[in-house]
Amino acid sequence: MSAPEQASGIVGFAQPVAAPLTRAAIFRVVTLKPGSEHRRTVRSLCGDLATIMRAVEFRDIEAGLSCVVGFGSDAWDRLFGAPRPVELHVFREIHAGTRHAVSTPGDLLFHIRAKRMDLCFELATQIMARIGHAVSPEDEVHGFRYFDDRDLIGFVDGTENPRGQEAVGAVLVGEEDPNFAGGSYVIVQKYLHDMDGWNALSSEEQERIIGRKKLSDIELDDSAKPTSAHSALTTIIEDGKEIKILRDNMPFGRASQGEFGTYFIGYSRSPRTIEQMLENMFIGRPAGNYDRLLNFSRAVTGSLFFVPSAPFLEVVAEDQPAVADTSAAPTVIEPSPSERREADGSLDIGSLKGEISHE
Question: Residues with catalytic annotation?
Answer without folding.
Answer: 157
